[in-house]
Amino acid sequence: MRATVYSGRNTVQVENVPDPKILNDRDAIVKITSTAICGSDLHLYDGYVPTVKRGDIFGHEFMGEVVETGRGVSNLAVGDRVVVPFPIACGNCWQCEHEMYSLCENSNPNAGIAEKFFGHPTCGIFGYSHITGGYAGGQAEYARVPFADVGPIKIEDDLTDEQVLFLSDIFPTGYMGADFCDIKGGEVIAVFGAGPVGQFAIASAVLLGAERVIAIDQYDYRLQMALNKAGATDVIDFSEDADIVEQLKVLTGGRGPDAVIDAVGMEAAHGHGALHAVERVKQANRLESDRGHALRDAILACRPGGIVSVIGVYGGLMDKFPTGAFMNKGLTMKTGQCHVHRYLRPLYEHIRAGDIDPSFVVTHRLGLDLAPDAYETFKHKQDECMKVVLKP
Amino acid sequence: MKKAAVTVHRSREEVQRLWESSEHRPEYVQGTDAAVTFKDAPGDRGTEIHVDLEGATSRGKLGEVVGKLTGSEPLAKVKDDLRRFKQSVETGVIPRSEGSPEGELAERKLKQRPAQPLDESELDKAGVR
Amino acid sequence: MPTLPRPIDSTLHGVTDYTVGTLLMTAFPKLAGIEGTESASQVRVAGAIHAGYSTVTDYPLGIVKLLPYKAHLAIDALGAIAVAATPFLTGQWTKGRRHWVPHVGLCLFELMSLAMTDPTGKGDFHGDIEAVRQANLEDPHRKIYNGGPAVTRTSA
Questions:
Q1: Which residues of C touch A277 (CB under 8 A)?
Q2: ipTM for the complex?
Q3: How many CB atoms lie within 10 A of CB B121?
Q4: pLDDT tens digits, residue range A278-317?
Q5: Is the separation of the CB atoms in C47 and C28 below 8 Å?
Q6: How close A89 gets to chain B, by Cα (Å)?
């Protein structure tokens, strides 16, 4: 089958690789009809995540048709249309039973590697380096889905692929970001990062009843989508004025937002070019692995007693975490890789009810063979690129 | 550090029974002089299994270093056994990935396959068929 | 298993060229404690030359895009070695550590940064944007600007 594989820093290639086979009784094989490129794939692409090997298939946002099931899978039948969550969860361990699916204790066969980086292993993830298990990803024609009796959700509606595909990752991730903010109605929420996850965080905050949602980014087209489509009420373009903290104060009558969502993560940009260059040099020299501009600003901007909701992906260590601001303002931080399985049903119901049409983020729909150019376009935000869906 | 522990989400009676059963028996740990104890974990967490290698055969400093590099160090193999026992008891399978098709294996840590499907000969070699 | 990352793209390399070049010409001699020695002028000249050929390099921060990026990187390497060799060729190294350690240090820094530089110059972007535009089944502009909101406010 054809698959998008890592071929060295800043390159991927579409190559012919063997078709996946059932390896365990609880596996299923899915023929992929749509798959997407994620912002976190870019961390792999850029060479910032260790343990990525040439030949690794990328991709963790995919859906399609079940073509084979292992003996232990009775909830799915051949021909079923499914969306597959990106975290692989067994459903049996203590964490899974407490709905913390991305913390599954059993699904990572490289737990020994993950332990060295994080202290404890966390769940396996499709196509996301060998720290998360070395599982083949879904930017391909077929994928093997472990624990298929726990993960995939059956789609039995006339909805298009683009309308349900994002249940795999970015819609639940954005939603969890907003969920963490404890919205009861009347809050002002600031979302750092208006990429696809940021767009869903904004839309979810709207769904949950926030009074105002402020989108923060440096690309005008992303802020426009946030306003026109995702329901943002205000925007901050920090390429014009890099002092995000002050602008948020003014927008909120001096109080600061009630909660801030970091939908940026470890490759944060910065308004001040020189400061950004310094951070990039440090990161390049491996003096720090994570650039923390967004998280730092989020903590400084959040109102005292507020919530810092971190759904942007981080991998290692950042310099200069504002411990003083965090402690003295009595902030709460909630974070984690999304527990997708927890949100699948409720969000599917929202889509079916017409409360949200997730396909709004798709700006590019291309054949799988264009993956290399698609990665470049997405990475460099060319052609007003927001989200790329690939069709194998 | 010569100790390792894992918590299995099952009652102590069940864990002790399965530890001895032919289906789940952990080969490496049972083949050494390690001291194995079972304790109730707090709350609803299940059972703690503690393995103490102190007093089990030692291979000297050089043997230790070689073991760490090749992944055949006793403690690493004990941890493999504990993780695999937990996986097979809680989920019924040993999770396999394309990078590590045998499942959790200390020797695989430095020698991962690329994360793409295995062909027939590799499947045979990994013992998956 | 791990691949050696080469995260310094041509833009970032340019940033370091100018900052380090300027630093060498200005503050470095004082900071390294070599102000007033022949090392100081050697380092200043090296910094000036480095910044100089950077301005005529064909990469994002070049002013006149003449010198191919790979040639620039080759000169970086040769220049670094030349800087390290200078104290030994002039014999000044016998005068003490201050007269050769900064040179060797700068050489090592430069070689290390070259080891992490991705030599596919001419800017970062190496995709075929036209192929993407032609193959795209969506219209990005329309998706961003046309139509109403994609979400309705419901109660929690």
A1: 12, 15, 19
A2: 0.91
A3: 8
A4: 666 666 555 667 888 899 999 999 999 999 999 999 988 8
A5: yes
A6: 10
